[in-house]
């Protein structure tokens, strides 16, 4: 059987928006990160949680009773090759709507998928605590959390009226998350596992650091 090449492998990237506020900074940051994932053979979509009106998770034993909205949400995540999770940082952690959404999903939706992380914060220290916790959750779901992540401090002053980052550093970090998610997802999906592992092992180990500003182009 012929293994598909990186040139022919199609990738679907879902951006999970962890804020219900329409036009909020989390969504603006996520849109930029998804731009970084765009390219030949790549489709991207933002998954807003508000329209799903997800119920609170009542435990895994009750998932058959959750109804159509939960089934549609899980199906949307399951269809992705990679997921970018964007969240505001609330009280040193990620948003409750993200936690509930992840609790309603599981291995079937996330195992073996690429996950990229984006966080925004109203304070000057960024959303590193929120993203560190999400990184641990990604590992518990047997997903691959890419080394690059982007945290935007003082989000209220970090975007212009068009939703673009004012800082070139923030822009490059957001784009790098999308670029890395799509690249690793393609390598993983196309079956070139040795190349995937080589790329993974040599990727920057300092999430959000300056070394990621010059990330190599996606193949």
Notes on the structure:
The chain starts with 10 loop residues before the first strand and ends in an 18-residue tail after the last helix. Helix 1 packs across helix 6. Helix 1 links the parallel strand 1 (11-17) and strand 2 (42-48). The protein has a single domain, classed as Rossmann fold. The chain has seven helices and six strands, in the order E-H-E-H-E-E-H-H-E-H-E-H-H. The longest helix is centred in the C-terminal third of the chain and has 22 residues, at 168-189. Mean pLDDT is 86; it is low at 209-219. Strands 1, 2, 3, 4, 5 and 6 form a six-stranded mixed beta sheet that branches. The chain is an alpha/beta fold and 219 residues long.
Could you give a quick summary of the protein structure above?
Helix content is 37%, strand content 19%.
What is the strand and helix layout of this fold?
Layout: E1 11-17, H1 25-37, E2 42-48, H2 68-78, E3 82-90, E4 93-94, H3 96-104, H4 107-110, E5 114-120, H5 128-140, E6 144-152, H6 168-189, H7 193-201
Parallel strand pairs: 1-2, 1-3, 3-5, 5-6
Antiparallel strand pairs: 3-4
């Amino acid at each position: 059987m012929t293994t598909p090449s990186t040139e022919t492998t199609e990738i679907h990237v879902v951006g999970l928006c962890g804020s219900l506020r329409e036009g909020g900074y989390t969504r603006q940051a996520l849109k930029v990160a998804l731009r970084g994932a765009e390219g030949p053979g790549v489709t991207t979509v933002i998954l807003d949680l508000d329209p799903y009106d997800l119920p609170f998770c009542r435990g895994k034993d009750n998932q058959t009773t959750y109804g159509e909205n939960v089934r549609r949400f899980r199906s949307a995540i399951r269809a992705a090759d990679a997921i970018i999770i964007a969240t505001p940082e609330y009280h040193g952690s990620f948003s409750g709507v993200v936690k509930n959404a992840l609790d309603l999903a599981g291995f079937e939706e996330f195992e073996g998928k690429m996950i990229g992380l984006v966080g925004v914060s109203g304070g000057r220290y960024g959303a590193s605590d929120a993203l560190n916790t999400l990184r641990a959750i990604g590992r518990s779901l047997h997903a691959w959390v890419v080394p690059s992540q982007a945290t935007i401090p003082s989000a209220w002053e970090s975007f212009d009226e068009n939703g673009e980052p004012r800082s070139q550093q923030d822009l490059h970090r957001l784009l790098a998350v999308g670029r890395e998610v799509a690249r690793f997802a393609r390598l993983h999906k196309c079956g070139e596992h040795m190349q995937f592992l080589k790329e993974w092992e040599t990727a920057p180990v300092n999430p959000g650091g300056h070394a990621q500003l010059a990330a190599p182009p996606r193949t």
